[in-house]
Amino acid sequence: MVVEARKLSLVYPTADKPVTALSEVDLTIARGDFVSLIGPSGCGKTTLLRVIADLERPTSGQIAIEGMTPEQARLKRLYGYVFQAPALYPWRTVERNVMLPLEIMGIARAERQARAREQLERVGLSGFERKFPWQLSGGMQQRVSIARALALQPDLLLMDEPFGALDEITRDHLNLHLTQLWRATGKTCVFVTHSIAEAVFLSTRIVVMSPRPGRILDVIDCNSLPRERTLDIRESPEFAAIAHRVREGLKEGHSYDD
Ligand SMILES: Nc1ncnc2c1ncn2[C@@H]1O[C@H](COP(=O)(O)OP(=O)(O)OP(=O)(O)O)[C@@H](O)[C@H]1O
């Protein structure tokens, strides 16, 4: 298992009263899975992703990443993390943004550049190496941040609503791109989203979370959909059936506020 969490709880101590963000979460993620976390705003999706990434420590429960503690996994750079906003340095070119984590790791310049170019090609940005982030669209910037996460050659890719701020057409395009990239690389992905359609389109499994404190209400298998996904699968009855089950799960948690 790439991720194994047992009875994971996390309470944020705040000035007035403690906030329970996660409550007894059990989750296992196998190699090559694409798992989406979906749930209402504030239900603890980002917190769960941050616990996997060792950016937060759980208050109780256990979590292992490839059999290691999250800290060991972080130090071994087993994961790449893509944030909600692209978080690129405006004074660095696209290529030098992708090279930055490799620079920090002390990787030689030639290798850094080769890896950055390879990953930029993977996300369809060959030819943009020397541009600055502000010369690119929002969708392209987010592809740069995916390339940056991939440049570390992680086993696990953690993505926190990477396409949330983009228009629907760009989002469709990037979803298609991401599913192709996932198939080509065989990476394990954990993806936070608010969008039912996006979760169904991308995932092998969807984890439906309750409003705060975040608990897991349902884990939905998406393998009735073909592994190779094209945008037209969204018109299929299998797609509709899975989307329906996600919606029902969210409703059960009294969280469906559309
Ligand atoms: N550092 C913190 N200190 C105190 N409370 C926090 C902290 N970080 C998050 N919270 C609270 O914990 C709960 C879960 O937050 P989290 O960001 O994990 O939710 P989310 O599901 O990712 O939300 P969204 O979909 O809006 O991004 C929220 O109520 C949030 O206000």
Summarize the structure.
By secondary structure, this protein is α/β, with parallel strands linked by helices.
User: Roughly what percent helix?
Assistant: 25-40%
User: For the largest beta sheet, what order do the strands appear in spatially?
Assistant: 5-6-7-3-8-9
Strand residues, percent: 15-25%
Gross morphology: globular
InterPro entries: AAA+_ATPase, ABC_transporter-like_ATP-bd, ABC_transporter-like_CS, ABC_transporter_ATP-bind, P-loop_NTPase
GO molecular function, one term: ATP binding
Keywords: ATP-binding, Nucleotide-binding, Transport
Protein name: ATP-binding cassette domain-containing protein
Descriptive tags:
258 residues, alpha/beta, Rossmann fold, 2 domains, 6-stranded mixed β-sheet, 3-stranded antiparallel β-sheet, globular
Could you please describe the fold and organization of this structure?
- The structure is a single chain.
- The strands form 2 sheets. A 6-stranded mixed sheet has the order 5-6-7-3-8-9, sandwiched between helices. Strands 2-1-4 form a 3-stranded antiparallel sheet, with helices on one face.
- Helix 6 (168-185) links the parallel strand 6 (156-160) and strand 7 (188-193).
- Helix 4 (109-122) packs across helix 5 (138-151) and helix 7 packs across helix 8 (237-252).
- The chain has 8 helices and 9 strands.
- It folds into 2 domains: 3-78 and 156-252, Rossmann fold (3-Layer(aba) Sandwich); 88-153, no CATH class.
- The mean pLDDT is 92.
- The longest helix is centred in the C-terminal third of the chain and has 18 residues, at 168-185.
- It has helices at 45-52, 70-75, 94-104, 109-122, 138-151, 168-185, 196-202, 237-252, and strands at 3-12, 19-29, 34-38, 60-65, 79-82, 156-160, 188-193, 205-209, 216-221.
- It is of the alpha/beta class.
- Adenosine-5'-triphosphate is lined by residues 12, 14, 19, 21, 39, 41-47, 212.
- Adenosine-5'-triphosphate binds next to strand 2 and helix 1.
